[in-house]
């Protein structure tokens, strides 16, 4: 085998390795930027169901809106403060049975002026993973509820940002 053939084979093997690594990487292998940060919500059902439960890394704790006392139970939101302006590539939400069906994923630099980066119209119970448009940055990431998936409020186990 000549040097040119060896070089082509080496290049092909290298490209194949990069392709395989790209295919197996997932948000689960990345660093959750929201873990242990501060979360704020529109309402809470009880003291034990606060927004901090969505960023504690415990897959069994959760946040739940005060759906029985909210003026409009479809309007519920939660946001996490990442601490500084950060590139955002993926948002992963793990909903309880009381899930958000329609909601917006928003970012902000000041927690007052929000930019919608993704509109979700088919949310479901369980894990929902969303790729955020390239170049998106923000200090705050918000889930802004528009429509609940059930007659209950919003109930979220995990709010992860990668």
Helix coverage percent of residues?
10-25%
Radius of gyration: 20 Å
Number of helices: 1
CATH architecture of the largest domain: Sandwich
Order of helices and strands: HEEEEEEEEE
Topology:
Layout (H helix, E strand, L loop, with lengths): L2 H22 L13 E4 L21 E2 L12 E11 L2 E6 L4 E9 L6 E6 L5 E6 L5 E12 L6 E7 L1
Antiparallel strand pairs: 1-3, 2-9, 3-8, 4-7, 4-9, 5-6, 5-8
Please tell me about this protein's structure.
- By secondary structure, the chain is mainly beta.
- The chain folds into two domains: 1-29; 31-161, Jelly Rolls (Sandwich).
- 14% of the residues lie in helices and 39% in strands.
- It is built from one helix and nine strands.
- It has one helix spanning 3-24; strands spanning 38-41, 63-64, 77-87, 90-95, 100-108, 115-120, 126-131, 137-148, 155-161.
- The strands form two sheets. The protein has a five-stranded antiparallel sheet, with no helix packed on it.
- Strand 5 (100-108) and strand 6 form a beta hairpin.
Q: What's a concise summary of this model?
A:
With 162 residues, the protein is mainly β. It has one helix at residues 3-24; strands spanning 38-41, 63-64, 77-87, 90-95, 100-108, 115-120, 126-131, 137-148, 155-161. The termini are far apart.
């Amino acid at each position: 085998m000549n040097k040119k053939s060896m070089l082509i084979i080496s290049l092909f093997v290298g490209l194949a390795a990069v392709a395989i690594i790209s295919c197996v990487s997932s948000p689960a292998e990345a660093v959750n930027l929201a873990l242990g940060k501060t979360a704020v919500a529109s309402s809470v059902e009880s003291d034990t169901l606060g927004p901090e439960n969505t960023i504690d890394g415990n897959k069994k704790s959760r946040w739940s809106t005060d759906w029985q006392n909210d003026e409009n139970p479809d309007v519920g939101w939660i946001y996490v403060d990442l601490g500084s302006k950060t590139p955002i590539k993926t948002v992963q939400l793990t909903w309880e049975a009381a899930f958000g069906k329609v909601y917006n994923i928003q970012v902000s630099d000041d927690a007052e002026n929000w930019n919608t980066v993704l509109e979700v119209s088919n949310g479901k119970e369980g894990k929902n993973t969303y790729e955020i448009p390239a170049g998106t940055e923000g200090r705050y990431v918000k889930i802004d509820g528009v429509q609940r998936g059930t007659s209950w409020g919003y109930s979220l186990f995990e709010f992860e940002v990668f």
